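S1.2 Input.
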Amino acid sequence: MLILKPNCECCDVDLPPESPRARSCSFECTFCAECASARFNDTCPNCGGELLRRPIRPAALLVKFPASTKRFNKAHAACADVQGAL
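S1.3 Output.
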């Protein structure tokens, strides 16, 4: 089951479970659409996999299967300009 991480690991913008802006790879690395496209050309900087729109879990199932609340950031050279401000 997808973890549904709550933020972009590059710019730390919030990505709630219902966000159409969330992008992830097959390893569930999570980025916002802007970082995925502009910084990484829709390719995961961690594994080289494709960054695609993250599926949205139906709201009724979020009660039983909630999204993660643990924020995750990773140092990427392409994110240095925003991560210095975090």
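S1.4 Remarks. Residues 8-57+74-79 form one domain.
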